[in-house]
Amino acid sequence: MGKKNKVYVFDPGTLDYRERVVTWPERLRRGGLWLLGSLLVSIVYLWLYTSVFGLELPKTTLLKKQNAEWNGKMAIMASQMEDCRRRLDALSLRDDGVYRTIFGMTEISRDERLSGLGGVNRYHDLRESDPAGRLYNNLIKLDLLTKMAYVQSKSYDEVDQMARHSGDIAACVPAVPPFYPGIDYHLSSPFGHRDDPVYHYRKMHTGQDFAMAPGNSIYAVGDGVVETVRHDLFGYGNSLIINHGFGYKTRYAHLKMILVQPGQKVCRGDCIAQSGNSGKSTGPHLHFEVIYKGNYVNPFNYMDLQIPLDEYAQMVKAREEQTGLSSDLVQPVHKDRKTIRNRGKK
């Protein structure tokens, strides 16, 4: 047996030391008792360290420090994304209230800007492992910002395209009267609520009625495409609608004769019809409507009835020279009723 296994003990009988061999079972027993004692001491020390003195383990302290740093970064990220969202909201308000309005474009609703963010929650599993919800909420905000930025970018692309064609918009807006202002006419019924002259109950009058002699030339008030041509016994009678684009349409009703066809392109100053007395009408007149983004608006907000007569005549003449068609600006005067020359009186 090796030297390290020898143990010497004092023998009181011989008053001398004698050798005693320590067996392996005994050594194992002693080792086990030592380990058990060490474990008990460690447990007592840990209990005193954490429960009695309220101290934290180094590993716990390190994890808490790392968690605090992580939470701080998440808070900074959330603050930055909230700032970005406020900036995007300001851009969207300016976009709808200024840029898209200038070019007659439809506003993008809040629901459209945030569409596609509902439905299936793809971060459900993350929410279960993130009780505080910091990472979960930041990912939701990031998705929101991504969607808003994409919609805003597409909107600016549309505005840019409209800006490149801004000259076309000026030519399409209904900015002139639909008839030569030098004729005898009067405003027989303005835009707004009125007593219906046939059914005698109050209703909305969606356009303006200009009493004038039948056969007066009616002109397109802006560039566009003839959308519909109708010939009805009642209602609007003979009527047509021109789609000017950019949200604008105009209707010309109670006509005597229509000189254009559906799908035909027309320009401001083209003669498109003659005034008449067709449909539900109590006398010869032109019913004129301006429709913007599907809503009826007051034509007086657009047309300039004070336009100089020579300027209007030059516009018509220029179109006649381009198209080779002629329309006589010397208009017939209605002989059967008193007419009042009332250029622009509301």
Layout of helices and strands:
Layout: E1 6-11, E2 16-21, H1 24-52, H2 58-102, H3 110-113, H4 124-129, H5 134-164, H6 166-172, E3 186-189, E4 192-195, E5 202-205, E6 208-211, E7 217-219, E8 224-231, E9 238-245, E10 248-253, E11 255-258, E12 265-266, E13 271-275, E14 285-292, E15 295-297, H7 309-323
Antiparallel strand pairs: 1-2, 3-6, 4-5, 6-14, 7-13, 8-9, 8-12, 9-10, 10-14, 11-13, 14-15
Helix pairs in contact: 2-5
Please characterize this protein's 3D structure.
The chain is of the alpha+beta class and 346 residues long. It has helices at residues 24-52, 58-102, 110-113, 124-129, 134-164, 166-172, 309-323, and strands at 6-11, 16-21, 186-189, 192-195, 202-205, 208-211, 217-219, 224-231, 238-245, 248-253, 255-258, 265-266, 271-275, 285-292, 295-297. The longest helix has 45 residues, at 58-102. The protein starts with 5 loop residues before the first strand and ends in a 23-residue tail after the last helix.
Strand content: 15-25%
Could you tell me how far the N terminus lies from the C terminus, measured between alpha carbons in angstroms? 129 Å
Mind telling me the CATH class of the largest domain?
Mainly Beta
Largest sheet: 8 strands, antiparallel
Q: Give the averaged pLDDT, no decimals.
A: 82
Write the CATH homologous superfamily of the largest domain. Answer: Glucose Permease (Domain IIA)
Structural class: alpha+beta
Radius of gyration: 45 Å
Oligomer: single chain
Secondary-structure arrangement, i.e. CATH architecture of the largest domain? Distorted Sandwich
Q: State the helicity in percent bands.
A: 25-40%
Total domains, how many? 3
Tell me the number of strands.
15
Report the CATH topology name of the largest domain. Glucose Permease (Domain IIA)
